[in-house]
Records
---
Amino acid sequence: MLRPANNLQNKAFYALLIGALGDWFSTRLGLSHGLVEGNRIAQTLMSTGSWIQTDFILVFICFTVPFLVNRITDEKMPKQLFWMPLFAGLLKLGVSVWNFTQILG
């Protein structure tokens, strides 16, 4: 049967959600202020109009894979999968802070 959420899972999901929203918002804000995207992959996705969709899919996968694996299996190892969205969320939070320093600086 399905198991309840744990503390690491909640931290990981909130970090990823806040990081993704911060990255999306700060990138859009920076571009509207005349800044240029430094990530070439993101530049290519933005030029084709598929940046938000691709980023949403990646965030969705980072959410669902650890969630489902942890709920389906009875082993303790799947809990280690929550480090992936936590790390991704912290990276996105770092990118958000960097973007805001570029906008304000």
Note: The chain has a mean pLDDT of 89.
---
Amino acid sequence: MKNPLFEGLNEEEEQSFLSIFAKKEIKKGQAIKKEGDHLKKGFLLESGLLLVKKHSSDGEMEVATISDSSVFFSLTCLVDGGNSLTTVEAKKDSVILEVSQKDFFAFCQKNPEIGVKVLKNATLLLAKFLRNSDEKIVQMYKTLEEVL
């Protein structure tokens, strides 16, 4: 599976980690998660097409389409159990793999060698998201300064 969360895992470790995920079939138009929902889960797209939406000041807008199989989403909710920042729904019939926060951390404790690798990868992904957000904020301030 080509996903940064699995970086450094051999095939056996990857399969062991994937064993804690539950497979779910999602029908076209069905929401997987909604913006603002309190969520303690993470998801992998196995097949299909997903639409990511975010509310803006003037209504809901499309943010992205997820079409690559093995894309992991809701990593932040999986780690911190916070509120979902986006709505994700199936743009066509899709199959996802879902893992709960409880199962995720239990697996990492029970399998520390794999757990350390996965948690390191999760930390790197979250750091990348944070860095990208910081860069966007800096750019917004620069744009605001130019306008004012």
Note: Strands lie at 22-26, 31-33, 41-56, 59-66, 72-73, 87-100.
---
Amino acid sequence: MDSNVPPTPTGYARVVLPIGGADASVAVSITVCDESGQQYVLRTTTPNAAPYCYFLAYGVYRVVALEDCTAQSNWGALTVGTIFEVTGGGYISLNYIGTISTPSIVQASGTDDNVPPSKVGYNIMKVYGIETNGGGVLVDSDKKEYGIFNYTGHIGGAHYFYIKPGTYTIKSLSATNGNYIYLEYGNVRQPLSAGRTFTVPASFFSIVFSKKAL
């Protein structure tokens, strides 16, 4: 918890809200109401940040809503409708149960002939050039755009990308010298161009920029 938290006001209790069950930047909340019906939304920070704390006035509260989470506390498990009484400080730990959105394409660490390790849920796509460099934009089924390129500081380099299985639309693809572009897997090589779609092969594959027809 942040060391700059102010002193707890008289008549209030400090309640800390850590978050668990998430490996991405998410924030969740619990909504409670007091005996007068006034509602308060208590929201967590993201997992890698210090947890928020709130000052709740002493009294009886009822849980009104939980946003994509379950809640455990020093008052026990909290579900919608649970009534609990605040008489002193405590915690409400919110465990994220929603779906974490992950990108369809992620640039990997490898370049040229340094193939990166496999990544669960992704295939490996090599983007390389033959006597040229190139790049472009792929669009996934959710209409999200991802840039790809092969430039590594010299002509004909290679970059690697982790890519989720699925079908992608080519928004743009172009090479700096020549404009022959292919999808390559196994012994198969098929031309690619803007507007076309392709389905990620079941194994390692490449997008190739070439100065000459292959």
Note: The chain has two domains: 12-96, 105-210.
